[in-house]
Amino acid sequence: MGVTLVTGGTGFIGSHLVERLLKEGEVVRVLVRNPSNLRWLARLRGKVEVVVGDVTRRSSLREAFKDVDGVYHLAAVFRHGLNSELVWRVNYGGTVNVVNECLRRDARLLHVSTVGVLGPANSEPLSEDSPLNPNPNHYARSKARAEEYVLRKCREEGLKAVVVRPAFVYGPRGTYGLNLLIHMLISGSLKVIIGDGSNYIHPIHVRDLAKALTYVMRRGSAGEAYNAANEEPVRLRELVELVMRHANVKVRFGLPPAIARLALMLRGGIGGSSVRETIMLFTRNWFYSTAKLRSLGWKQEIPLDEGIKETIRWLRSPEALKHFTSKR
């Protein structure tokens, strides 16, 4: 049996993917840049091979790719507010290096992108055929360019690759994105929602996403992209009301965007996003067609209500609170 390599396997999504691959009998190798940061994989010692390397340095990838049949490429820099050069060097440059090693080894690649490459929707869910219109930040733009590179190599050089675009991922271990929003709601740092909450948001639990990644890797068609989200979107108001009910907190709706813009100009956007992006998050539709993913046999397993309760429990755990306290 060949080896399955996971880049970014120590992170939020990657650690859940590694657990799923092991349960399914895969021989798993994880590429790590910092071997001291294995907290989510600590209990898997002896079951996972760890190789030190950096996707931005192709020479460091040779050992990691030895005897590899398949590669799940998740390594990326998410934080919008970080140095743009670093974001591009990891998200685009790192993908170029991984692609070229896959071509050299004739390994199948699953590249994890983001629905952020599609931008906000209007009145209809966005599909995989929707034109790329990346959100106005370096993360989404670098991911769009990386995705284009992967698919171009499929067409021109026969790269055996598929692309998955996760939507709003939530669940245990996450400290950014939708989990950050939930944390702000339950901690009281976000008391008023911009707009009336009638816009759509499209979550997916991290374990459902891990399952989706394995389905696309094994059943997806090379050169194709797949949106990964719950089978149905939810209005932002409904999501926030779920959090309020399970966390026993109160949040108001209806902050006018114009007033929000003034307030955000003083404190900055949420999670490193710009003021413009933050307002877009609360007022635009973010939903996607998942028919293509479901055609592979994938089904959502974790109901939103159950997933939100689990996420709140984790966000109130000492480990999560330690992370958010250290970021103040």
How is this structure best described in words?
A 7-stranded parallel sheet has the order 3-2-1-4-5-6-11, sandwiched between helices. By secondary structure, the protein is α/β, with parallel strands linked by helices. It has a domain at 3-170 and 202-231 and 287-301: NAD(P)-binding Rossmann-like Domain (Rossmann fold, 3-Layer(aba) Sandwich). Helix 6 crosses helix 10 (304-315). The model has no long low-confidence stretch (mean pLDDT 95). It contains 11 helices and 13 strands.
Question: Can I get a quick summary?
Answer:
The chain is an alpha/beta fold and 328 residues long. It has helices at residues 12-23, 84-105, 138-157, 178-187, 206-219, 236-247, 257-267, 275-283, 291-294, 304-315, 318-326; strands at 3-7, 27-32, 49-52, 68-73, 108-112, 161-166, 168-170, 192-194, 200-201, 203-205, 225-228, 234-235, 252-255.
Rg computed from alpha carbons, rounded to a whole number of angstroms: 19 Å
Dominant shape:
globular
- Alpha-carbon distance between the two ends: 46 Å
**Count of helical regions:** 11
Largest sheet: 7 strands, parallel
CATH homology superfamily name of the domain at 3-170 and 202-231 and 287-301: NAD(P)-binding Rossmann-like Domain
The helix/strand order is EHEEEHEHEEHEEEHEEHEHHHHH
Summarize the amount of helix as a percent range: 40-55%
CATH architecture level-2 label of the domain at 3-170 and 202-231 and 287-301: 3-Layer(aba) Sandwich
- Report the CATH topology name of the domain at 3-170 and 202-231 and 287-301: Rossmann fold
Structural class per helix/strand content?
alpha/beta
Compute the average pLDDT: 95
* CATH level-1 class of the domain at 3-170 and 202-231 and 287-301: Alpha Beta
Strand line-up in the sheet with most strands? 3-2-1-4-5-6-11
Number of strands: 13
Percent of residues in beta strands: 15-25%
